Amino acid sequence: MKQIIQDLKKGDTILEEIPVPNVKAGAVLIKTTRTLVSLGTERMLVEFGKANFIQKAKQQPDKVKMVLDKVKTDGLKPTIDSVFNKLNQPLPLGYCNVGEVVAVGKGVTEFTIGDRVASNGNHAEYVLVPKNLVAKIPDNVTDEQAAFTVIGSIGLQGIRLLNPTFGETIVVVGLGLIGLVTAELLKANGCKVIGFDFDAEKVAIAKAKGITAINPAEGTDQVKFVESFTNGVGADGVIITASNKSNEIISQSARMCRKRGRVVLVGVIGLDISRADFYEKEISFQVSCSYGPGRYDEEYEQKGNDYPIGFVRWTEKRNFEAILNALSNGSLDVAPLITERIPLKEYDKIYGDMGNSKSIASILVYDSTEKPVKTITVTDKSFKGKKGVIGIIGAGNFTSSTLMPQLKKLNANVKYIASSGGLSSTTMAKRFAIANSTSDYKEILNDQETDLVMITTKHNSHAKFVIETLEAGKSVFVEKPLALNHEELNQIIEAYTKSDASLSVGFNRRFAPLALKMKKLLGNDNTPKNIIATMNAGYIPKEVWVHDMEVGGGRIIGEACHYIDLCTYFADSKVVAVCMNAMGVNPQENTDNASILLKYENGTNAVVNYFGNGSKGYSKERIEVYSQERTMIMDNWRKLKTYGFKGGNSKSKQDKGHYNQFEALINQQKNGGAPIIPFDVIVNTTKASFAAIESLKQGKWIEI
């Protein structure tokens, strides 16, 4: 299928060929018939993509500070690599989609195959959309009209926040696509509407809809006009749908309001607010968030958990339905807003010169008769007779920034890369010359030529993919964690014992150059040691998936397991008991501030400090080892200082990376060898991670 994307690095807008998304639980697969181009929003994204690096930096000063902080802690080259990796990830364009449901995921009961629906899907021939972002289209509403559903919902949410009453005077600043729809909805709500815009054509359309529309370029003072129109009272409210960097708009909006008037921002403007403008009249100001309640809420959007209608009357989905109803009963007429209708293959007529476009609403028309495919060939390669042929499940940040660059250096035989949506895997396949991109991971498992499967997906899918891969008779490399709970771990152990294939887990710290040197200096005498391992992990917002115990398993199981494995490597022994204390009076199970005490079979004690509340200016990782009147201190994988050891002090080249195990893994798989880390060590480390969480609940030692 074809999809429009923006290349943030090169600045090109591309019609990309990618696999059709794989339908998943809680979502529907839609075959697109129409999409609406939101010229305001999409123009900003396209122009940002075309900007040079300096211009991009000026537009995002907060990101520049993050980059500078990363340089201080991680070094220049890793930071540059990280920035370029982000820019290599394409941006899907579009969020106003209409089409027909062609597949329904598990748990979806309100849609059936053949339903016509509107959604926030991208400009693509097929889109996979969670059920709470999809709404059925009434029979008397055309696909073209329904394409305005999401745009209409953005305006409607601004209106709901303003809470206008019948007869009030409301000003709409900016009569672009959202502004015109907003003004018409306000009029349908019984309001007297004034609209301002500098585009004569948009003003004319607004006037034709019965809106009092003014072009300030003709010399009209906006504030004085509103005062005159309202007999000196002022507007009851202002909705700003304009896009302009000037601070004048927010100032004018406050000055044209009556006492205790309301201002709602839907667009993007300068926000250097004058206190006096708002203070004297006690003006209220609020920013509207997209389509309505539920937006950016993982529970609502991705997990499909609706808000009770008695407590949240208008969610984003219910706003979608309200707009479709307005289109159905004629209170919203979008036909005059359509400037052009363009076939998808001629997309460049819209995106080629968006900066100078005078269009209001552009409709992309889809008429694909191609049979949908879930696997596409990106690079012609033959793998017949080769050993160590690899398939990768997961095409996220770790795969692009860490795994694939290393595999490329090793000239590895990568036949497949899979992602559920198909776009990220295709982008990576092109970047790293991978033969095939697929949205169906089972294509990898069913291919007899594939020897090794690498799994780099979200944590909650690791166990499922590991078990299925072992059952398919293929060796596995899975990023940590191996599993999220004891039940999954036991299922993996059972599958592993029945299979002849090998299993490795990406506990990578033990393979870092300085870790190898530390191990060599410590020797193999199996004497007890004291180890202090501190990970200054940094703050991650609570809504990020790693904190979700069902998806990410929390940061202790999901990331602190690296240090449990590293301590096990230095101790050269098995964990026999775990005790964990988390910060806070009543710490939560998904804590990211905790100290874990590990007791080893040979008498070694290790303390793993995992902190999410430290400064990013301080080293991210630090290891101290005390043994036989000797001490070694490793700082951020860049410096090793020793006391009592001969020839121990050294520095590590950051660009050597922490992932030498990939080379060893591939070579071992080519030769039919055993996994890098012994299976009992993998299981022991995993159990220690689980025990740490259990000890938090029980507040005591957990014997393993």
UniProtKB/TrEMBL annotation:
One of its GO terms (molecular function) is oxidoreductase activity. Transmembrane segments: none annotated. SUPFAM superfamilies: Glyceraldehyde-3-phosphate dehydrogenase-like, C-terminal domain (SSF55347), GroES-like (SSF50129), NAD(P)-binding Rossmann-fold domains (SSF51735). Residues 540-629 form the GFO/IDH/MocA-like oxidoreductase domain. InterPro entries: ADH-like_C, ADH-like_N, Gfo/Idh/MocA-like_OxRdtase_N, GFO_IDH_MocA-like_dom, GroES-like_sf, NAD(P)-bd_dom_sf. Residues 390-507 form the Gfo/Idh/MocA-like oxidoreductase N-terminal domain. Pfam families: ADH_N, ADH_zinc_N, GFO_IDH_MocA, GFO_IDH_MocA_C3. Keywords: Metal-binding, Oxidoreductase, Zinc. Residues 85-139 form the Alcohol dehydrogenase-like N-terminal domain. Its cofactor is Zn(2+). It comes from the Bacteria. Belongs to the zinc-containing alcohol dehydrogenase family. This is Dehydrogenase.
